[in-house]
């Protein structure tokens, strides 16, 4: 009799323990969210995190900006729940993810143009995609070759690990190699800083990084702005992504976070940062 009671008690404790462990696991998963990846998408993720944690003080969201490639690696290695990417995931990244049991699902959170930026004092107001390519290849080296002053062009690019670089490479470079003289910087903010402090520089950055300290050039006669990017008219534009492992459980904090851009508040946050929302409230 006593043995039976002991077994029953032990079974009950095991069930209770498993239940508590399960609850603890769900709690830990849903209240601590790690976001890593693109420096372009990073400001959106940070603004979303600040907004969301304001609504849910029990949720802790950390956002790192290590670049799109590293964001993909973090998702594949299971060290983040959400990978910010300013480009779509590559085939080899998908293959590596599936091999580890990760199924990447893309969420388009905003649209972005890649303005070509120069110093505000530069009188050049527009270029063609071909002229931009020729500058980065090294065929055009002086501003006087495109109607500007007699000054050598200082060419600035994002580092090759960034999604911004890969978008520029796909949409502008047409598989041509950049000149050895091109300077590489580690973030959109650094690209803007180099251009704003160098009167003869040219660079590119996400639309949200363009302010009064730099001048965005018309490309093929089209000004980069919300209207031309959302309509697909501006030739150097792209979607911005958050990737998760599978589609998030409905009602979870991760689901709410990666769909925040679909709400009116999410749209306002994206507009305030300078990117193009996918909704129109």
From TrEMBL:
The keyword Signal applies. One of its GO terms (biological process) is phosphate ion transport. Keywords: Phosphate transport, Signal, Transport. InterPro entries: PBP_domain, Phos-bd, Phosphate_ABC_transporter. Residues 29-249 form the PBP domain. GO terms for molecular function: phosphate ion binding. Belongs to the PstS family. Involved in the system for phosphate transport across the cytoplasmic membrane. This is Phosphate-binding protein. It comes from Eiseniibacteriota bacterium.
């Amino acid at each position: 009799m006593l043995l039976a009671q002991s077994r029953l008690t032990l079974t009950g404790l095991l069930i209770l323990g498993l239940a508590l462990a399960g609850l603890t696991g769900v709690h830990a998963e849903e209240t601590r969210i790690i976001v890593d990846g693109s420096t372009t998408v990073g400001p959106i993720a940070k603004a979303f995190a600040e907004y969301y944690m304001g609504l849910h003080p029990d949720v802790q969201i950390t956002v790192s900006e290590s670049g799109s490639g590293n964001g993909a690696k973090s998702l594949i290695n299971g060290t983040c729940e959400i990978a910010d990417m300013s480009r779509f995931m590559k085939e080899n990244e998908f293959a590596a993810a599936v091999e580890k049991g990760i199924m990447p699902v893309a969420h388009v959170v905003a649209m972005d143009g890649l303005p070509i930026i120069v110093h505000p004092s530069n009188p050049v107001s527009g270029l063609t995609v071909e002229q931009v390519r020729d500058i980065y290849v090294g065929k055009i080296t002086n501003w006087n070759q495109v109607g500007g002053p007699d000054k050598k062009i200082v060419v600035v690019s994002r580092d090759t690990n960034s999604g911004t670089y890969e978008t520029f490479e796909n949409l502008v470079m047409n598989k041509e190699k950049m000149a050895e003289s091109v300077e590489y910087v580690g973030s959109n903010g650094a690209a803007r800083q180099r251009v704003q402090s160098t009167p003869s520089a040219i660079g590119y950055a996400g639309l949200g990084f363009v302010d009064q300290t730099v001048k965005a050039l018309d490309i093929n006669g089209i000004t980069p702005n919300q209207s031309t990017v959302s309509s697909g008219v501006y030739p150097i534009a792209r979607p911005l992504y958050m990737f998760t492992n599978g589609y998030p459980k409905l009602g979870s904090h991760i689901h709410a976070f990666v769909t925040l851009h679909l709400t009116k508040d999410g749209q306002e946050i994206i507009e305030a940062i300078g990117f193009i929302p996918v909704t129109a409230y």
